[in-house]
Amino acid sequence: MRPLVLTALIASALAACSPSTPPESSAPKAAPAPAPAKPAAEAPKPAEAAAPAKEIPEGECGDQSKVAPEQRIVNTARWSTASEQNNFGFDVWRGDSEKGEFTKLTKDPILGAGTSDETHKYEYRDDTIDPCKEYWYYIEQTNTDGSKEKISPVFKAPAKRRAVGSPAVPPAEPAKG
Q: Which residues 6+ apart lie within 8 Å of 115 measured at CB?
């Protein structure tokens, strides 16, 4: 039996950095707090689905490659390990839908701690997003023997902006029947 990394996800949810220009809304915006620690085997709770829809600010959509890196709107995946065994590193994967095709974002793996009984924290900053789109992510571990395993559930990063002139809250779907 090959050794597994004992993983606790600190924040499967993604945090967003503030846009480079202040939102036109007078309401203050705060960065989301990290979610409480969860074991990797536990699926994230659909807290976002139960919470009322928040109004997201209007802004520019699309490619941010011409925006200075420190001013881009990003998704940041954060996770930690309670211990590691034969862990070479991690790759972060992103898709446009929960079941959709995923693309590896990390050019080189985020190096792991090898074998360790200590807690280690990791993060990946994705600044290649379209701020008006939602994305789905997961984390994959590469072991020192080259084997790979998905160590997180697929998790969602909601859109950070909406296109200028678009409705603040999407209209409700008409009842079918």
A: 84, 85, 86, 87
Query: Lowest-pLDDT range, 113-117, 155-159, 160-164, 171-175?
Result: 171-175
Residue 161 Cα distances to 15, 111, 150, angstroms:
13, 32, 30
The full length of the chain comes to 177
94 within domain boundaries: yes
H-helix or E-strand containing 84? strand 75-95
Could you report how far apart the first and last alpha carbons of the chain are, in Å? 53
6 pLDDT above the threshold of 70: no
Give the lowest-confidence range in 23-37, 80-94, 148-162.
Answer: 23-37
Q: Give the residue numbers spanning the domain of 86.
A: 6-19+33-41+66-163
CATH number reported for the structural domain that contains residue 129 in this entry:
2.60.40.10
The answer to whether residue 175 sits within a structural domain is no
